């Protein structure tokens, strides 16, 4: 078989960035899955939210969140600096708009760890670019034990999060994909499969146009 010299090679293909939203009730494992995805996949960055919640001992300013006060949050909201925002478990959370736009322009994907209320707003603003995944715990008992095992929150905060979990799970139909996080390895492979398939969608692969034109021109 002789090498085809006329068909252009497919270089690292130009692709439009996508936004992957991982949402779940607190404790179902979305931070763990997000961390694994960021470690193993290229070209994806985490959208670092702002929050008025207090910092947990394991959290780093600017890495997990930007920790801000309510006055600063309201200022950002009023200036239109947030792509979306919501009140969750009695604190405010929001997604800074500018880093998301910059990543998309650079052809990079963005991972969002936000709740269903934020998901609705982002999907409405960027309908073509967003992929939504809801992570479910295998049982409510396991959800409670994960929140305790994480040992990051007070009993009062854990009780509040468990009470809110049912309200959040009730919103599951808003999401395109649902992953049950029973076995972590399997759940991770499922999330990764979703990302990889979504990246391959024709409409995101703008670099394919020239390649296919070349294929058709070749003798
Ligand atoms: P979330 O970000 O959804 O609040 P985390 O990722 O912080 O949840 O996970 C909550 C706790 O459960 C953590 O201690 C994490 O290590 C643990 N965890 C996550 N996924 C699993 C799993 N599949 N099996 C057992 N423990 C898990
Ligand atoms: P936590 O306090 O456990 O970090 O997060 C609590 C909840 O707030 C989670 O469901 C998380 O996904 C959500 N959350 C975190 N950042 C944002 C954000 O920027 N916007 C919205 N709408 N929710 C967020």
Give me some keywords for this one.
four-stranded mixed beta sheet, alpha/beta, binds guanosine-5'-monophosphate, binds adenosine-5'-diphosphate, 219 residues, 9 strands
How do the strands and helices of this protein lay out in sequence?
Elements: E1 19-23, H1 30-40, E2 44-46, E3 49-51, E4 65-67, H2 70-78, E5 82-88, E6 91-96, H3 97-105, E7 109-113, H4 116-125, E8 130-136, H5 140-150, H6 155-169, E9 177-180, H7 184-199, H8 208-217
Parallel strand pairs: 1-7, 1-8, 2-7, 3-4, 8-9
Antiparallel strand pairs: 3-6, 5-6
The protein binds adenosine-5'-diphosphate (ADP) and guanosine-5'-monophosphate.
The assigned CATH architecture of the domain at 12-47 and 108-217 is: 3-Layer(aba) Sandwich
CATH class of the domain at 12-47 and 108-217: Alpha Beta
CA-based shape: globular
Question: Which cofactors or ions or other ligands sit in this model?
Answer: adenosine-5'-diphosphate, guanosine-5'-monophosphate
Strand content: 15-25%
Q: Output the strand order for the largest sheet.
A: 2-7-1-8-9
Provide the gyration radius in Å. Answer: 20 Å
Alpha carbon gap, first and last residue: 15 Å
What string gives the helices and strands in order? EHEEEHEEHEHEHHEHH
Which structural class fits the helix and strand makeup?
alpha/beta
The fourth-level CATH homologous superfamily of the domain at 12-47 and 108-217 is P-loop containing nucleotide triphosphate hydrolases
- Uncertain residue segments: none
> For the report, how would you describe the main beta sheet?
5 strands, parallel
The chain-level mean pLDDT equals 92
CATH topology of the domain at 12-47 and 108-217: Rossmann fold
Number of helices: 8
Helix content: 40-55%
Number of strands: 9
